[in-house]
Amino acid sequence: MTVGKDTETGSSKKNRMSALAIVINYFFHLILFGITSYILSRVIIDLNVTLFTLHIIFIVPGYLILMSNAILIMSDNNFLSMTSKQSERVISHWMLQVFGLILIIVGHSCVFVYKYQGNLPRFQTVHSRVGLATFILSLITGFQGIFTRYSYQLRKFVKPLIQKIFHSLVGNFTYILAVVSIIYGFDQMWSRDYDVIVKPILITLLSISTAYVLYKSLFTMALRIKQLFE
Ligand code: HEM
């Protein structure tokens, strides 16, 4: 069984997802929502809402909800957009990117100000260094997305295919780094008895959901690289 028409072409082309693909997709949305809710509620219960915890409260949903959906939409793997045309999916993608980026910028500003005000050591841990790299790459991906959006108009300067490959390369890598930052974050912060069970569960769920969010996008990128050499 397939859902959604696929008779259209070009910018009006719609997405096809089998019933099984929709169930799996729904399941991963629940996992991502569950992980995000757990991290946020745990941080708020343990430490309350402070300038420091705001970095987690803003950044984690920014990546796990908004950026995940932005990637899933563009790789035609999101039940929320399966009835949308290609042009509508592009708009949803960049809107999610923009809102995600706003949360990420605000979250980083909170932790930077917190550290600055407290005169605390900066970028001493693996988490903070990977986090900084994630932040910088997120800004680069967002900015470069503008060139990818207008890649056809800019084709005299750079091949659209190269723009798209570069965008997915940096975007996917940034998403992986974001997940690594999250894992290092709670790994260095949580040390209660039950964390011996909680941390491996979260790491496993995050690894599986990351593989799911990225696999189609990586596959399309590989096809494009192959196309480049044909
Ligand atoms: C993608 C998600 C995240 C990113 C990009 C990120 C980024 C950062 C950055 C850049 C710093 C250092 C700021 C500075 O030194 O000026 C920092 C500090 C910190 N973050 Fe995160 N963070 C994320 C999620 C989390 C999570 C989920 C937790 C814990 C549940 C966490 C816990 C901490 C702690 C304990 C510090 C202070 C110690 C240190 O500098 O490493 N972070 N974060």
From TrEMBL:
Cofactors, names only: heme b
Keywords for the protein's UniProt record, in alphabetical order: Electron transport, Heme, Iron, Membrane, Metal-binding, Transmembrane, Transmembrane helix, Transport
Entry's Gene Ontology molecular function annotations: metal ion binding; transmembrane ascorbate ferrireductase activity; transmembrane monodehydroascorbate reductase activity
Gene3D superfamilies membership: 1.20.120.1770
Segments traversing the membrane: 20-40, 52-73, 94-114, 126-144, 165-184, 196-215
Membrane topology of the entry: Multi-pass membrane protein
UniProt GO cellular component terms: membrane
EC number(s) from the headed UniProt entry: 7.2.1.3
Keyword Signal: no
PROSITE patterns: CYTOCHROME_B561 (PS50939)
Full protein name: ascorbate ferrireductase (transmembrane)
Organism: Polypedilum vanderplanki (Sleeping chironomid midge)
